[in-house]
Amino acid sequence: MSLAEQLYKLQQVDTELQRRQQELKDIEDRLSDDKALVAAESEIAEQKEQLEDAKKRQKDSEWELEDLQEKVRKIDSKLYSGTTKDSKELVNLEKEVKSLKSQIRPKEDALLVLMSQVEEIEAKVGITAEEIERLKREWEQSQETLGQRKSEVETVLAKLRGDRNILERQIDPEVINTYERLRLTSGQAVVKVERGKCQGCHITVPTSQWQKAKAGDLIQCTSCSKILYLE
Ligand SMILES: [Zn+2]
């Protein structure tokens, strides 16, 4: 195997390593991504707070109404028991009971509104709770499949790292440095020469150059500096 071919193989391994490392990172990102669940949980917490508030207002309204009804009952029994003989007092009591009764209807209407608000919020809480259950099931499933995928990719990565070490040991460290530098600056360090042209920059490679490359010398393209590889 010529040096250029060894470097070309190394580059293939490195490219695959990069791709698999990115894949692993994506899997890890997805494994830790619980944003949807966190958002739904904060939503239900807010809805439950609203529900508590609405229920409290409903209770207050019920008490006010009961209080009013109790007052009316008391005055009514006073009026009809016949214990009060004083006509002025009777008139006052009748006035009072009339005023109290006029307050009952609006209170009842307000209570109905509050009750329907409570029902509405309860329905919302129910929907969000279902959504949370769904997200939790999804989360568990994806943790399982992604976990499997992760260990598969890790196995592949370990194999690639092993391959890389073997290849690297066969190559002169100075050549490896040149290779690494080229990969760092232009992504690709080794390019094929096809139909006499460098596949890195598409410039025609002088015959003497590609002949040397074919013979196994380490030749860099005069135009793009990439290492030339001829099959
Ligand atoms: Zn070139």
Indicate the topology.
Layout: H1 3-31, H2 35-81, H3 87-169, H4 173-186, E1 190-194, E2 197-198, H5 207-215, E3 227-229
Parallel strand pairs: 1-3
Antiparallel strand pairs: 1-2
The structure holds zinc ion.
Structure notes:
Helix 1 runs antiparallel to helix 3. Helix content is 79%, strand content 4%. The protein has 231 residues and is mainly α. It has a 3-stranded mixed β-sheet with strand order 2-1-3. The longest helix is centred in the middle third of the chain and has 83 residues. The chain has 5 helices and 3 strands; from the N terminus they run H-H-H-H-E-E-H-E. The structure holds zinc ion. Zinc ion (ZN) binds next to loops.
Query: What molecules are bound to this protein?
Result: zinc ion
Structural class: mainly alpha
How much beta, percentage-wise? Answer: under 5%
Question: Could you spell the SSE succession in H and E letters?
Answer: HHHHEEHE
**Share of helix among residues?**
over 70%
Q: What spatial form do the alpha-carbon principal axes imply?
A: rod-shaped
Q: How many DSSP-defined strands?
A: 3
Regions with little confidence, pLDDT below 50 for 5+ residues: none
> Tally the helices: what do you get?
5
In angstroms, what separates the terminal alpha carbons?
Answer: 10 Å
Q: State mean pLDDT (0 to 100 scale).
A: 95
What is the assembly state of the chains in this entry? single chain
What composes the largest sheet? Answer: 3 strands, mixed
Q: Mind telling me the C-alpha Rg?
A: 42 Å
Strand order of the largest sheet: 2-1-3
Can I get a quick summary?
It contains five helices and three strands; from the N terminus they run ααααββαβ. The protein is mostly helical and 231 residues long. Strands 2-1-3 form a three-stranded mixed sheet.
